[in-house]
């Protein structure tokens, strides 16, 4: 059984949303599974001096256009939420809480959160907004609200982000296939080729 | 006759080198020609606060790896020159000087300069290094040395860079197809699709 692909992303990363719409199907075509690993780019940008793309003069305007164009190309809806960039801590905690119970449901939740943010353009920065998405996915509201405050889940997220930084994760989306790192939605073509050829 | 594609690049941009190795052939497949437009990213980064990619922690290491991997994929040699990033003013002036005489020869010279820098890893930052490449391309050494000091050529380059900024050019490589802007070597796939479908 080949190793799963590691898929790192921030819930506030619109290019992560585009990659999330394709990655499972792409992996499946090559008999691979995907480990979804949401992270907090804010913590990572403190290491790299990175800045949120859409705030950069000229480049930000381009990125808005490129995002909408790329979403049209792969046939998914695209909208930016009103608060953007936003804190994705609550969304990350919800994901890892779900992951501890059921990996498949955790991925379904990640997709629902992404759809809410960048498919419908709704805010998912507050615990309450995240809880609403969880409830719509059939999860228990009280349980999720408790999980978002749980010190164990908070620590688990910190550990995940530190492990990602230690592995060299510096952006979103970032995909690791058999130790090979690919960064950016626009490198998915090379990810597909790497899976097909086993390297070059 | 459809409009030419505009291809903006900095001679010190290694991703520009990769794009330069593909762009003419890609355009030709769709009955298009390419207007090569070298620019100075340094001047543009003053507007956008951009930084040379390879100096950024984590991201820089990734880019070195990604560059070598992408070069292998398209089958071109890749090496970084000792001085990097470097000033590409002399290379740009040589290009526009040649363009005033013969567009085809100017493109051949641009390819030779890029090959010298990122194919062979040789410095092309000084006027003398640029003159050597020009002479190897069969051009007249005295004429090119005079051109690199010529106030008219200097002004022409300043005008070109200002026009590029006014058009929204903020990075290298940057390609404009029928008013549609694509940034990055990793968007060449979308450029090819856009040419094929005329948009989406």
UniProtKB/TrEMBL annotation, chains A, B:
Top enzyme category: isomerase
Signal peptide residues on this chain, from the entry's feature table: none
Reaction(s) the record says it catalyses: 2-hydroxychromene-2-carboxylate = (3E)-4-(2-hydroxyphenyl)-2-oxobut-3-enoate
Keyword Isomerase among record annotations: yes
GO terms for biological process, alphabetical: glutathione metabolic process; naphthalene catabolic process
Superkingdom to which the source organism belongs: Bacteria
GO MF annotation list: 2-hydroxychromene-2-carboxylate isomerase activity; glutathione peroxidase activity; glutathione transferase activity
EC code(s) of this entry: 5.99.1.4
The name this protein goes by in its record: 2-hydroxychromene-2-carboxylate isomerase
UniProt organism field: Pelagibius litoralis
């Amino acid at each position: 059984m080949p190793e799963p692909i590691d898929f790192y992303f921030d819930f506030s990363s619109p290019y992560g949303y585009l990659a999330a719409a394709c990655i499972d199907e792409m992996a499946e075509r090559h008999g691979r599974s995907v480990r979804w690993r949401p992270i907090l780019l804010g913590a990572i940008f403190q290491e790299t001096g990175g800045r949120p793309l859409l705030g950069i003069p000229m480049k930000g305007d381009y990125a808005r256009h490129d995002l909408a164009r790329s979403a049209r190309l792969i046939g998914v809806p695209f909208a930016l939420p009103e608060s953007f960039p936003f804190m994705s801590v609550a969304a990350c905690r919800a994901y890892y809480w779900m992951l501890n119970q059921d990996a498949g449901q955790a991925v379904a939740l990640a997709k629902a959160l992404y759809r809410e943010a960048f498919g419908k353009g709704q805010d998912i920065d507050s615990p309450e907004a995240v809880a609403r998405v969880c409830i719509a996915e059939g999860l228990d509201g009280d349980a999720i609200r408790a999980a978002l405050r749980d010190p164990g889940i908070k620590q688990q997220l910190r550990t995940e982000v530190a492990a990602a930084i230690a592995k060299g994760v510096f952006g979103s989306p970032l995909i690791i296939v058999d130790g090979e790192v690919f960064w950016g939605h626009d490198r998915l073509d090379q990810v597909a080729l790497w899976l097909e050829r086993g390297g070059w």
